[in-house]
Amino acid sequence: MPDNSLRARIDTSKPHSARFWNYFVGGKDNYEVDREIGDQIKSIFPGLVDVAVTSRRFLGRAVRYLAGEQGVRQFLDVGTGLPTADNTHEVAQRVAPDSRIVYVDNDPIVLAHASALLTSTPEGRTAYLDADLYDPEAVLKAAAGTLDLSRPVGLMILNTLGHVAEYDRARELVRRLMAGLPAGSHLVISDSTATSEGMIAASEAYNASGAVPYYVRPVAEIAGFFDGLELVEPGVVRVPEWRPGPSDGVEAAAAVDAYCGVGRKP
């Protein structure tokens, strides 16, 4: 249970993005206010559930690619969200038990559940930082307590940059984080996109609920986060289309309004 100071930071009177997403992927760490807006948005745009589920599957495929095919042994997961099945450290350490993972979030709800992210194989290590995306240098400095920033890192920023209202600012935050990582590091991003009237309406309804707003962007802006990096095939695509496995149901979910990509720092 969270301590009193942490509990005081948790507002259960308004919907919350991590709890809302948790509800969509079948988790139990949410409140009635989150389920109410979730059900409202499902009635407007049922496809958002597919966005949540397929984005989670993309995380697994991307981490397996980095750990398995690229030999990446360090991951910096910014905008962690609430723990569910197959978190970054679980996927990475299943492939490479000596993987090190640092989770970063400054949300009291996520912090209250951080202990679930701090399990690790004996060979590896996990850590949790109560830190802010808006201060990339502080994030990198704190992460260096667990990660060796002279060696490649997989920077994971999934379904988080939509909370940054100004696109130029979001790009600058990504640039500053990648600037502190060495050649051979990879950037992994996924975000919901303004690619259908339904998704745009869902975003507007969510933002009107009193929750911290989430802004859906054109696909070209998602691609812009990878400027200066070497895009890994198949490039910036809908999340089910990024190297799908046999069980990912790409045909059924191909129209999801979320795009992703993986880029390598040369």
UniProtKB/TrEMBL annotation:
GO molecular function, one term: methyltransferase activity
Transmembrane segments: none
EC number from the UniProt entry: 2.1.1.-
Highest taxon in the source lineage: Bacteria
GO terms classed as biological process: methylation
Alphabetically ordered keywords of this record: Methyltransferase, Transferase
InterPro entries noted in UniProt: SAM-dependent_MTases_sf (IPR029063), SAM_dep_MeTrfase_SAV2177_type (IPR006764)
Name recorded for this polypeptide: SAM-dependent methyltransferase
Organism expressing this protein natively: Streptomyces olindensis
